[in-house]
Design a protein that fits this description.
Chain B: Its cofactor is iron-sulfur cluster. The complex is a heterodimer of chains A (353) and B (72). With 353 residues, chain A is of the alpha/beta class. Chain A contains 12 helices and 10 strands. In chain A, helix 2 crosses helix 8, helix 4 crosses helix 5 and helix 8 packs parallel to helix 9. Chain B has 72 residues and is mainly beta. The chains are: A alpha/beta (353), B mainly beta (72).
């Protein structure tokens, strides 16, 4: 692998570099367009970035880092997530171990409110300002809405943390109720490019997801929308997805890397290479210079222990700490310690208001 | 998915792989071993039943209907 693991912040200018001038062109264009003017890359430009060779990776990451520092600042948003309702989902998202339609070993489970509050408390202790309650459902039923209402109220009583939710597709009434509960941000991933979505999910459409996102924004909640890369999509489709997300202008974009799950249709896919994952991080930052770009699931698998550092120096400005919904992450302290070492302050609670 | 359900060994030793549910003595668990650092257990090591697993940001609990709960 050409990329050795440590990210060197190169001070070499592009013009010092030999080789194909077309290759460095896109970085020069991005420097002027994104870094100086704050205007995200177009779909075609993102594709050019995704096609850069490994030799350009350090320069690309350094530029993405500069863009993030310039347009977002040094703060990093830290979040913990919890699965309120695990497994037994009627949808067929081909990457997901929680679909009831696949022979996955994940069984259904419900978390009770005291355990939810305890997880929020522990999350806040790390310095995190975000706690996201997630349920594996097509959309919430009344039982789930009731459990969420009770959980959000109980958390707000005792923990100083922003509560987000991810509960699938919503009706207008449910959106209103979540906003009234004080849910400040709603996560609903488009998951992949519109053109590739039918290869990933057949039980609902990309457009239905877009509609929920529209309702969420209308209700005044922050929009959190990202997806998973490495699901067999082409580089063109990865660029298409970046452009579609940029059009949505979400407040936050969580970027996941496929962690192939046993028993799912994508269970035997190869995991993405580290350089590909990092190129995607940087390209998405250059497409969306101002968004909260969060390192989410799969980073430990794709990038190993060094991934957090490489991402945080390559355009990432938010992390999920600790475990994920059904899989484990690295210990939260490892990421918190790293932020200290990189002199990146954890975003404080009132800065998000 | 149904894994083979058998009675545990008299000494309570792990008979089954907690990742794939196959007998632990069978070869081919290299991938399971690699997984274990980033995956909670899914199958009861004593009887291979699928367990109900709850992951939270800082740990996990896994419950077998026959052999009870373990946690991280």
């Amino acid at each position: 692998m050409a990329h050795s693991g440590t990210v060197s912040i190169s001070t070499t200018t592009l013009s010092d570099r030999p080789g194909d001038p077309g290759r460095s062109d896109i970085l020069a264009v991005a420097r002027e367009q994104v870094l100086e003017r704050g205007e995200g890359l177009t779909q075609d430009q993102v594709l050019e970035v995704l096609q850069l060779p490994d030799e350009s990776l350090d320069d690309l990451l350094a530029l993405a880092h500069d863009v993030r520092m310039r347009w977002c600042g040094p703060e990093v948003e830290v979040e913990g997530i919890i699965s309120l309702k695990t497994g037994g989902c009627p949808e067929d998202c081909h990457f997901c171990s929680q679909s009831g339609l696949f022979a996955s070993p994940v069984r259904s489970a419900w978390l009770d409110v005291p355990m939810l509050v305890e997880a929020a408390k522990q999350t806040a202790k790390t310095g995190a300002t975000e706690f996201c309650i997630v349920a594996a459902v097509r959309g919430p039923d009344e039982r789930l809405m009731g459990q969420v209402a009770a959980g959000v109220a109980a958390i707000k009583d005792v923990v100083d943390i922003n509560v987000a939710c991810s509960l699938g597709m919503l009706t207008p009434d449910q959106v209103t109720r979540l906003a009234e509960m004080g849910v400040h941000r709603y996560n609903h991933n488009l998951e992949t490019a519109r053109s590739y979505f039918p290869n990933v999910v057949t039980t609902h459409t990309w457009e239905e997801r877009w509609e929920t996102l529209r309702l969420v924004r209308e209700a005044g909640m922050e929009v959190c929308c990202g997806g998973i890369v490495g699901m067999g999509e082409t580089l063109e489709q990865r660029a298409e997805f970046a452009a579609q997300l940029a059009e949505l202008t979400p407040d936050e974009v969580p970027l996941n890397f496929l962690n192939p799950r046993p028993g799912t249709p994508f269970g035997d896919l190869e995991q993405m290479s580290g350089p590909d994952a990092l190129r995607t991080v940087a390209a998405y930052r250059l497409a969306m210079p101002r968004t909260v770009l969060r390192f989410a699931g799969g980073r430990e698998i794709t990038l190993g222990d060094l991934g957090a550092r490489q991402g945080l120096l390559g355009g990432i400005n938010a992390v999920i700490v600790g475990n994920y919904l059904t899989t484990l992450g690295r210990p939260a302290e490892a990421d918190i310690d790293l932020l200290g070492e990189l002199q990146m302050p954890i975003k404080a609670l009132n800065e998000t208001l | 998915m149904t894994a083979p359900v058998q009675e545990p060994a008299a000494d309570g030793a792990a008979q089954f792989c907690d990742q794939c549910g196959a007998p632990a003595a069978e070869p081919g668990h290299e991938r399971c071993a690699a997984r274990r650092t980033l995956e909670p257990p899914r199958f009861c090591p004593q009887c291979a039943r699928r367990m109900v697993v709850q992951v939270d940001p800082f740990g996990w609990t896994a419950r077998c209907s026959r052999h009870g709960e373990t946690h991280s």
